[in-house]
User: Fold these one by one.
Assistant:
Number 1:
Amino acid sequence: MVESIQLNFGGFVPLSTVDWRGKSVCVVFFRGCPVKCWYCHNQNILTGEDRRPIEEIKELIRSSSLLISGVIFSGGEATMQPSALLSLAEYSKSIGLFTGLHTNGVYPDVIRKLIERRFIDHIALDIKAEWNLYTVRGKERAVGKQVKESLTLCTNASQAGILPDFEVVITLFPGYGEEVMMISHDVAPDIDLVLQQGVYQGIKPLDLNNLKEIADRLGRKVRIRTRSDGEIIYEGNSSSGDAGIRER
């Protein structure tokens, strides 16, 4: 029987060394996303359609399998297409690849299925705002509760050893204030928290020292990720005082 699942396809990178720390991976991009982030680098795949048979995408993954150890599902938002995501994750595991997901966490039920079926090895949860400010396109429906549920799901799975690799990512721009404190407070101390340099045309990005100053306010170890300096582990400086984040 021919599989009928289709993927609204956003693109494919056959080899990447920057999408999963310490691994060479291919990246499958899913088209479509419910969250409208003004700084998104993949604006061209947030909407529209390019339907492809799932077998075509499996062949792309298979064709890269000699060069890689894993596959990343990204977007857009991969969990918007649960049937395609679950099928591709299961296939990737079946041919001996590690599987990773970059997600905004809006669809916790899909994340739960990936974890329960042991289809996923790595999740990067990109938390974008305070829970009460999290909305999706169209009706501006609040989804902070769903994202927080995804954080709890992934944290519990990580602490239980079911999800081998889990990190929370915050993309930072000048003026990003109390959101950082709120998110850090809700991320367990044993979970990797990544402060990622936001880059967008016309806005001067925060540099490594700026991000260290923000980290000093959090009172915890973090990973700091910038284009020029790569990724470092930063233990923090509790004596630094106010990091100078502009409050809202």
Number 2:
Amino acid sequence: MLEIIYQDEYLVAIHKPAGLLVHRSMLDRHETRFAVQLLRDQLGRRVYPAHRLDKGTSGLLLFALTPEIGRALSMSFEAQLVDKRYHAIVRGWPEEQGTIDHALAKQLDESEITKGAPQGPIQPAVTRFKRLAATEQPWSVDRYPQTRYALMELEPVTGRRHQLRRHMKHISHPIIGDATYGKGQHNRKFAEELGVNRLFLACSAMCLPHPVSREVLDLRCALAEEFAGVIQALGWEVPA
């Protein structure tokens, strides 16, 4: 059963676990469980995802309970009226805080890929970041005798697909567990030492205007147990 963080007559927010697709995907044909289907069965009614979370990302996922509310929520996301905060574990020690202003090519959706569409246009993309903690572990990877990691708070100002993962790779601090934009050697060593194999990225807070009342909706989601356990194992404090 999915953990419900917030629910009213218009929308519902859940804690999506890592490894769960939001909806059916031709790129993951073997998968049989999807957040849309599970939540529909749990509530006994149709639900409409208002935004995306990658399969490997855990945390807050917002659904509308009617198509009209779904369109209103989508408009809020497109107008950048939704303040989202993520936590991530990355390789290396980034600066204590900063802004990544690096345009990204639009990633095509499944229908566009199937039709053989060319690469999408270049779009502006901005991410703010803050380093919360750092550590150096005596694990030899590649030519380095020790390995550095950092716990980050990430705020995507824009909402490009895979933006956080692509931006952290761009500044040479990829998110641990990222099979696409990270480095396999580092991901395998991290999983071997800490016993958890996942993408260490989670949406932990979201602030947005309610689509009906327009009051500020402040949603918070604790990190998944295995994510929090790794943070503690590295000697860090789990973010509140």
